[in-house]
UniProtKB/TrEMBL annotation:
The species this protein was found in: Jejubacter calystegiae
Lineage, highest ranks first: Bacteria, Pseudomonadati, Pseudomonadota, Gammaproteobacteria, Enterobacterales
Entry protein name: Cation:dicarboxylase symporter family transporter
GO cellular component: plasma membrane
Chief location bin: membrane
Molecular functions (GO terms): L-cystine transmembrane transporter activity; symporter activity
Length: 445
C-alpha cells in the first residue's frame, strides 16, 4: 500500500513539472524543481518507508535508468551527425586538426590544474594516509594489473578504431573517441568530395542536413524528459546512501568536495577571462551539471553537454568534440582531483614534500597521462588513481580503502568532469575564434 502511495506521489509531481514546462521555456527551472522534489521523496523513503523503499526505487528506476539509457541511445547518432554537419559547413579540413588538438590540449591543461587544486586542498587540510592504515582495503590484484598492462604507445593505438560497428555498440571503453575519430575521417573525405566532385558533394550535403534535422528532433524529445529522469535519480540518491557507511572517511569526502568546489571557481574565472558571463554560463549549463551529478555518467551527459554549449554560442564542431572527448579523457574530477588528494595524503608518510617543484614536475604529467589512461582501462577515479600512484611508485592500497565511498564522491566528480569538457570547449572557442567561423547550428532547446 505504501509503495503504491509513493508511485501516486511521483505521478503527481510529474504532472506538476509538466505544467511548469508548459508555462516556462527554461529547462533549468524544471530541473531545479525536479531536483527539489526528488530530494523530498528520497529523504522520506530513507526515514519513513523502511524496507518498502527498495520496491519503490525499483519502479522509480524505470524512469531514472530508462532516461539514462535513452540519452546513451541518442548520443552516438548525435555525435556522428553533429560533428559531420559541422565539418560540412567548413571550407577545408585544415582547421579540423587544429580544433581537435586545441581541445585535447585544453583538457590536459585543465586536468593538471585540477590535480594541483586537489593536492593543495588536501595538503592544507592536513589529511594523512596513516589514519587509514587500519581500514581493510577492497582492492584486488586484478585492479592493479589493469593499470600496468597498457603502455602509452598501446594506449594511443587503442584510441584508433578498427571496427566502427564495434564502437557503435559501445563494446570498448574508448568507443566514443573511436566514433569521433571515424567521423573526423569521414568529414575530411566529405570536404574532399565537395571539392573534387561538386555535384555529388551537393547531394551529400543535402542528405547530411536532412539527417541532422531528424536526429536533432529525436534528441529534443529525449532531453524534454530530463526533469522526470532527474527527479527519479535524485530520489534514489537520497534513499540509498547511508551516512554510517562512510562516517570514518568524512575527511576525505570533505576534501574532495572542497577541491571540486574550488575547481568550479577556477572554471568560473576561466569563463570570465574568455569574455563570458559566469552567471549566464552556469545558468545555461545547469541541466547538464545536475544530470551528471545524479546519474554519475559522463557518457550519458554528452547530449546535454553538446546542447548547452551550442546555446552558449560554441560552434558545433567544438561543442561535439569537447563533449565527446571529455567523456573519456581529461576528466577534472576523476583523473585530476581524486588521485591528487590521495597523493597528498601518501607523500608525507614516505618522506616526500608534495609541494616541491621537483615532485610537481613528476606528478602533473602523470595526472595528464592518467586522464588519458582512464579511457584505456575504464573505471573512473579508481583506475585513474591507480595509474597515477603506480607511475609515481607510490603504494596503491589507499585506493582500495576509498572504493566503498567512491559513489558518494563520484557524483561531484562527474559533474566536474562534464563541466571540464565544456570549459575546454569555451577555451578552445576563444583560442580559435578568429580561425574558426561559427556555423549556424540547430540548437537543442
Amino acid at each position: 500500500m505504501l509503495a503504491f502511495l509513493y508511485l501516486i506521489v511521483f505521478f503527481i509531481f510529474c504532472v506538476v513539472i509538466f505544467k511548469v514546462d508548459r508555462k516556462s521555456t527554461s529547462l533549468s527551472k524544471s530541473v531545479f524543481i525536479a531536483l527539489f522534489l526528488g530530494s523530498l521523496i528520497g529523504l522520506s523513503l530513507h526515514f519513513i518507508a523502511g524496507d518498502t523503499s527498495k520496491t519503490v526505487i525499483e519502479w522509480y528506476s524505470v524512469v531514472g535508468n530508462g532516461y539514462i539509457n535513452l540519452l546513451k541511445l541518442v548520443a552516438v547518432p548525435l555525435i556522428f551527425i553533429s560533428v559531420l554537419s559541422a565539418i560540412n559547413k567548413l571550407e577545408s579540413g585544415i582547421g579540423l586538426g587544429r580544433i581537435s588538438l586545441t581541445i585535447v590540449g585544453c583538457m590536459l591543461l585543465l586536468v593538471m590544474v585540477a590535480g594541483l587544486t586537489g593536492l593543495l586542498t588536501a595538503h592544507t587540510l592536513g589529511l594523512n594516509a596513516e589514519s587509514f592504515n587500519d581500514i581493510q582495503t577492497s582492492l584486488t590484484q586484478n585492479d592493479v594489473a589493469k593499470t600496468t598492462a597498457i603502455s602509452l604507445p598501446e594506449l594511443i593505438t587503442s584510441l584508433i578504431p578498427t571496427n566502427l560497428f564495434l564502437d557503435l555498440s559501445g563494446a570498448r571503453n574508448v568507443s566514443v573517441i573511436g566514433i569521433v575519430i571515424f567521423t573526423l575521417l569521414a568529414g575530411v573525405a566529405l570536404l574532399a568530395v565537395k571539392k573534387e566532385a561538386p555535384e555529388e558533394g551537393v547531394k551529400l550535403s543535402a542528405g547530411i542536413n536532412a539527417l541532422q534535422v531528424w536526429v536533432m528532433k529525436m534528441v529534443r524529445i529525449v532531453i524534454a524528459l530530463t526533469p522526470y529522469g532527474v527527479m527519479a535519480l535524485m530520489a534514489k540518491v537520497f534513499s540509498t546512501y547511508r551516512i554510517e557507511q562512510f562516517t570514518s572517511l568524512l575527511g576525505f569526502i570533505g576534501a574532495c568536495y572542497l577541491a571540486v568546489l574550488m575547481m568550479f571557481v577556477i572554471h568560473a574565472l576561466i569563463v570570465a577571462l574568455t569574455g563570458n558571463n559566469p552567471v549566464h554560463y552556469f545558468k545555461t549549463v545547469w541541466p547538464a551539471l545536475t544530470f551528471a551529478f545524479v546519474s554519475r555518467s559522463s557518457a550519458a551527459s554528452i547530449p546535454l553537454a553538446i546542447s548547452v554549449q551550442e546555446k552558449l554560442g560554441i560552434p558545433g564542431a567544438i561543442a561535439n568534440i569537447s563533449a565527446s572527448f571529455g567523456s573519456s579523457m581529461g576528466q577534472n574530477g576523476c583523473a585530476g582531483i581524486y588521485p591528487a588528494v590521495m597523493v597528498a595524503m601518501i607523500a608525507p608518510t614516505i618522506g616526500i614534500d608534495p609541494l616541491s617543484l621537483h615532485f610537481l614536475a613528476a606528478l602533473l604529467p602523470a595526472i595528464a597521462l592518467g586522464s588519458i589512461g582512464v579511457a584505456g582501462v575504464g573505471g573512473g577515479g579508481t583506475f585513474a588513481a591507480l595509474i597515477v600512484l603506480s607511475t609515481l611508485n607510490f603504494p596503491v592500497a589507499l585506493v582500495g580503502v576509498f572504493i566503498a565511498i567512491e559513489p558518494v564522491v563520484d557524483m561531484a566528480r562527474t559533474a566536474l568532469n562534464v563541466n571540464g569538457s565544456m570549459i575546454s570547449g569555451v577555451l578552445a572557442n576563444r583560442l580559435l575564434k578568429e580561425k574558426v567561423s561559427a556555423p549556424e547550428q540547430q540548437t537543442i532547446s
